[in-house]
Amino acid sequence: MSPRKKEASDRRKLRLGRNGFMVAVDLGGTKMLAAAMNDRFEILASSRKRTLPKTGPVTGEVVFGRICDVIEAAIHESGRPRSGLAGIGIGSPGPLDPYGGVLIDLANLPFKNFPIVERLRKKFKTEVILENDVNAGLYGEYCFGSARDAHTVLGVFPGTGIGGAIIFDGRIHHGASGAAGEFGHMIYDPGGPLCGCGRRGCIEAFSGRPAIAGRLAALAVRGDAPHLAADAGSDVRSIRSGAIARAIGAGDKRVEAVVREEAFRIGIVAASAVNLISPDRLVLGGGLVEEMGKLFVDEVTRAVAQYGLPFLVKPLKVVKADLGDDAVVMGAASLVAERIAGRARKG
Amino acid sequence: MSPRKKEASDRRKLRLGRNGFMVAVDLGGTKMLAAAMNDRFEILASSRKRTLPKTGPVTGEVVFGRICDVIEAAIHESGRPRSGLAGIGIGSPGPLDPYGGVLIDLANLPFKNFPIVERLRKKFKTEVILENDVNAGLYGEYCFGSARDAHTVLGVFPGTGIGGAIIFDGRIHHGASGAAGEFGHMIYDPGGPLCGCGRRGCIEAFSGRPAIAGRLAALAVRGDAPHLAADAGSDVRSIRSGAIARAIGAGDKRVEAVVREEAFRIGIVAASAVNLISPDRLVLGGGLVEEMGKLFVDEVTRAVAQYGLPFLVKPLKVVKADLGDDAVVMGAASLVAERIAGRARKG
Fold this sequence. Notes:
Two copies of one chain form a homodimer.
Chain A: H1 3-11, E1 21-27, E2 31-37, E3 43-50, H2 60-78, E4 85-92, E5 96-97, E6 102-105, E7 112-114, H3 116-124, E8 127-132, H4 133-144, E9 153-158, E10 162-168, E11 171-172, H5 203-207, H6 209-221, H7 226-232, H8 241-250, H9 253-277, E12 281-284, H10 287-291, H11 293-307, H12 310-313, E13 317-320, H13 327-346
Parallel strand pairs in A: 1-4, 4-8, 9-12, 12-13
Antiparallel strand pairs in A: 1-2, 2-3, 5-6, 6-7, 9-10, 10-11
């Protein structure tokens, strides 16, 4: 193990005692997952909940209450005494302030400048960390998954947007804004289509799932995607990753061609990122990649080989994320462990 | 001063004694500069030399001999005893291996897998470090110049190529290959013109000096750049940064429009880099920027504002490099000082 790798691993070494445990939360727009873990990062219990209530007002306070509930449920299920709770880690969509522990202005959740770290710390009387969910997920892959033996890691997660994250020498790179890693807003074509961010030509305006689904819906309407049309119709909302993968498996050649084209396009932008930061691991994840891992890894590898400089591509491996739904909680728990271990060493 | 900033500054603190000094070398394709510096980074003496001999064979050994000569000359001029030499830092074009101290395969110099660090260490019996010249130059700006109070720094240096370098938290980012920072090979348009690297659409194929000069030569030929035509003719080789700046100053409007367009194009790619790594400082340097600093800073600032995400652009300042020709030797000397200080602390 290299000195830096060892340092990163040491940062996570914990002795929480027999009853000690952590809780990590993956806060999503539709559902949330809380996992209670011991100091070997084994999941003792987990609890899931819809993020928004089915009825009644949807306010920050209401959703905060639901987050507390799902944490309580995980604690309860773990069978550990509450006194053993050593820390809580939250992975949340951004933009957020990881230093101040504040949810700034979430697109699908009713939080605006919400000091979630302070609120949870007061309620649970324990250490709390907040991290962007994409960062936490990539950090999970770095600590326990597909990027375990890497140093400089680029994560690319095509979904509704195209999430990105960077790890340099064992640490999440936040940059000056706290919000580095916006791979989806790297420019593919400055005169390209309007992006959700209001600018033009961002890669996610071309190759995010809604844009891909739009192209596929057009195929379905004109009879070029018979299996997709039968399975999911032509509503962009219903053309989800699973339906796309099934259509390709069933033989919709034009569906496959479109998805390959967009995966390759993502790869061209990834090549720009590779030429800039020279990672040794490029982790692909998210719904599309979960369902069509080989296709995405193949096309991105091909694009990076074509548009990356040979001596920068040489040490690089393009891989599929392998922790699935657990990546965010594993990463968030690792960050909690590092915080606790750091405190312990100082104290 | 932030803890990280202070750490970086501490790394450079040296006590070399009354006679102690360092020598830093900026090894260029046409000329080289060696500067002898004391432990306050004051230049005691400097010496310049053509890199290649005017007559006779041009081999790695011959050029190595000339490098030794220019170092000896700087030592001699400094008036310090040779016994006071505490270290040598070399800034060289790449590709090179900064860890192994090897010049891998330089485009304009007769070095191929040349172990320059080992050779200089044997000859001068002192600590030697090797760094890419663009990295060393940006590090000089970080330690003493335009990026002094920044944390995450992106350097963009348009010239024959478009050099790039990155500093994260006070350290040069080398990445997995040792050669990160290839801004010039970020893709502007995957179907664009052939680049010197053999790929298509790299930003330097559009906006490097030769490409800009080509566009300007075409203007000159068709009578749209009278001042430029009178001053430099229509030979791309003679359309250098100074001539371009003079033509703009004299009123060649179309020359100005072309240069602004290419500076803006560089800015679009810089915006992609900003969205990925979120720097707080973007340093522009190199010949074109030396001559037309305001134009480049203005256009890049405008492009970054247009194509960067607002919360990533907010902490960013776009500035012109301010150490000029001394940047590389200042940066190389800083790296030597850090190496010596690190050894001293360990020893």
